[in-house]
Amino acid sequence: MPNKILIIGAGAIGAFYGALLAKAGADVSVVCRSDYEHVKQHGFIINSNDLGRWTFTPSQVLKNAADFKGMADYVLLCTKVLPDIDLAALVRPAVTAETAIVFIQNGVEIEQTMLTAFPDNEVISGLAFICSNRINPGEILHLAYGHLALGNLPGFISSKTIRLCELFVRSGIECEATENIVTRRWQKCIWNAPFNPLSVLSGGLPTLDILRSQETFVRHIMQEIFSIAEACGHSLPEDIIDININNTYAMPPYKTSMLLDYENGHPMETEVILGNALRAGKREGIACPYLESVYSLMKLRELKLNQSA
Question: Mean pLDDT across the stretch 77-102?
Fold first, then answer.
């Protein structure tokens, strides 16, 4: 019997990974927000530079998790992490005693919400290292990468996590199970903390232009995240900054998810990417003037966005 999987938040990330799980033989349903009517009629088109072009037709297309029919082996939460969204409430209607809850989301120090809400379920933290955008209703453009890291909280690997990794690998992407998933969140923040906000603050420049113009500034922000992570007990590889810089030079010009949210007038993940890191730095006594400046400028940009709404 195929694994039954419910994707909550079928945007650029959720739809792409849901489509891969379906290719691997899983029974995949989705909860859609803005694209519900389109996806209900036409499904998704996935256009990947690496994996080709195909159509993904979910088993069920739903407006909310309460409408899900059946028992989910996995619920994958792929929404933005925003202060005014109760993430546990989005998931809860589809959770049974045997359901593993997987959140594939950005940010650091976000784990406790799900651990507190679902103390008797497996909670799996997931990170996507990917360049992927929603370019039209129901249409996802996968530009580069796609590697996933998954790990149970508070720090182990279960058979369900291994099974989910196997499904992703079968679909054609790399997926690793790790006992150090929280450390890996800080590792991803090394890239997110400079490039997401700077893409907004620069007025819409793609990542490559930002790096060519302001590599030193980018490195300063990365170094502060590196120091905060270490102070929080998460030592990162010594060459992680150089690796991120080199990888960004090599990737195609890319509009970050935060920039796309800003351009579309949507709330941005300022708090979980910048605010949480900054608060952790202050808690651990780490000076982070570059991060603090970028965070303050982003809060002003958010204020302007809210006033224009």
Answer: 96
